[in-house]
Amino acid sequence: MTLIAPTLQSFFTDRLISQRQASPRTIAAYRDTLRLLLAYLHQHTSRPPSQLDWDDLNATVISGFLHHLETVRGNSIRTRNARLTAIRSLFSYAALRHPEHAQLIAHVLAIPPKRFDKRVIAFLTEDEVDALLTAPDTAKWEGRRDRVMMMLAVQTGLRVPS
User: Fold this and answer.
1) Do 81 and 14 sit in the same domain of this protein?
2) Model confidence at 120: pLDDT above 80
């Protein structure tokens, strides 16, 4: 077993679960990211994950993996950045446990997230609000309930992405 395997295990058991008390969804997302990374490394190096060392996870390989996520897997920039966050979290943890790989870890941590365009939030027009409020069937209780909930949402700032 190389240095990466015990660090991966302790990252999940000690860091995420015990120290940070991460949610099960966060742990699953980080697990999926690292599983994809290990599969990518196996595909490109023909070495099984059990034989990988920290030197195999340099910034060039991580950048290639992130590029692979966007081009081959069709992930969005937001998903790519979320995967990078999981990788950075692992490498931040590894920096404390493996100071002998400080330079390699620093190069990986220096990989910047990609910028992306944020959607502008538009408000409903009066005609759209009127159509929305007249849609429920007020003859039924569910319709009256839905209309009241929509009126509350509209009056408190209902927004819809454009």
Assistant:
1) yes
2) no
158 C-beta neighbours (distance < 10 Å), count: 15
Q: Are 57 and 34 in contact (CB under 8 A)?
A: no
Residues 6+ apart with CB under 8 A from 116: 76, 77, 78, 81
Query: Can you give the residue range of the structural domain that contains 148?
Result: 121-161
Predicted confidence (pLDDT) at residue 161 exceeds the cutoff of 70:
no
Kindly state the DSSP code that residue 54 receives in the 8-state scheme: G
Name beta bridge partners: 33. none
Cβ atoms of 10 and 4 within 8 Å: the answer is: no
Same domain, 56 and 78: yes
Residue with tokens 């959607």: 119
Say if residues 59 and 111 touch (Cβ distance below 8 Å). yes
pTM: 0.72
Asked, for residue 115, whether it belongs to a domain, the answer is no
The Cα 146–Cα 161 span in angstroms is: 21
- Domain count within the chain: 2
101 and 125: one domain? no
